[in-house]
Write a structure and sequence with these properties.
Number of strands: 7
Largest sheet: 7 strands, mixed
Shape: globular
Distance between the termini: 17 Å
CATH topology of the largest domain: OB fold (Dihydrolipoamide Acetyltransferase, E2P)
CATH architecture of the largest domain: Beta Barrel
Radius of gyration: 17 Å
CATH class of the largest domain: Mainly Beta
Helix content: 40-55%
Order of helices and strands: HHHHEEEHEEEHE
Amino acid sequence: MVLTVEERKLFFKNWLKLLAFVNDRYNIVHDFNNPDNPVGLNINEINKIKNKLWKNSFIIDKYIKVAKLNDEDLKIVNSWKRFIKGKFLIIKELKKYSIFLDIEKEILYGVNGISNPFSEMLYSFPLMIETVLIPFKEKIIYDSLIARHNIEFGPNYKKSFEEKYIKIKKEKGIKETL
């Protein structure tokens, strides 16, 4: 449901170094430097940098060329080129992961939280969000930020989402990797 402590450290080590590279390349945020921990970072600044990254994802290749990455880190960062940016409906939380529905493509994703389960951060489901899904060590996670849409769903919508979930799960299954 969430990354282990070691996985979390590995994710943030690579994610923050990549963001620092993007920031240095495009001069987005003054004094971002090279953080090694997400605690205390300004969410708005991170959002500006990550948006630039996903609009220019080719920069991942540029980063890989200059960064001195070990094999594991290289595999992780390189996999992020398979990101999926979009609007998702978080349907429910299971023991293994949370179910994200891409309504347009009718695809279910099993997404792991990074530090906390989604139910602790977002409280109720179904919930419409925007984020970027990325692979991480045979799992799907998100790029550390979620934009929540304040939409209330009535009982008929909730029922239709549950029916859609059951139908898609039966026909296509749940994607657990990207």
